[in-house]
Write a structure and sequence with these properties.
CATH topology: Fumarase C, Chain B, domain 1
Distance between the termini: 21 Å
Largest sheet: 2 strands, parallel
Order of helices and strands: EHEHH
Strand content: 5-15%
Structural class: mainly alpha
Strand order of the largest sheet: 1-2
CATH superfamily: Fumarase/aspartase (N-terminal domain)
Shape: elongated
Number of domains: 1
CATH class: Mainly Alpha
CATH architecture: Orthogonal Bundle
Radius of gyration: 16 Å
Low-confidence stretches: none
Number of strands: 2
Length: 88
């Protein structure tokens, strides 16, 4: 049975089934659409050039340090990548 992630009703039993028993996991279309909307917001924020914690700055003690654009690219998915294309 495939566990379908929709962003609202994942159970501990499903997590255990996927993590320990290799159950197949898939994204629901509405979850993928929500991820795309969120990514578009992030892209807009990045294009604005303002410091944003964890996106254009370090995190924790390094939050005062701006990341240069090359460093930021290391944390971004390649253009056109789908969530399932990301290495696991």
């Amino acid at each position: 049975m495939t566990i379908t992630l929709n962003g609202s009703d994942l159970t501990v039993t499903q997590v255990v089934a996927a993590a320990r028993h290799g159950e197949t996991v898939a994204l629901a279309p509405e979850a993928l659409a929500a991820m795309r909307r969120s990514r578009a917001i992030v892209q807009d924020v990045l294009a604005g050039g303002e410091p944003v914690y964890g996106l254009t700055t370090g995190v924790g003690e390094r939050k005062a340090y701006l990341l240069d654009p090359a460093a930021r690219q290391r944390f971004q998915p390649p253009p056109g990548a789908q969530p399932q294309d990301r290495p696991g």
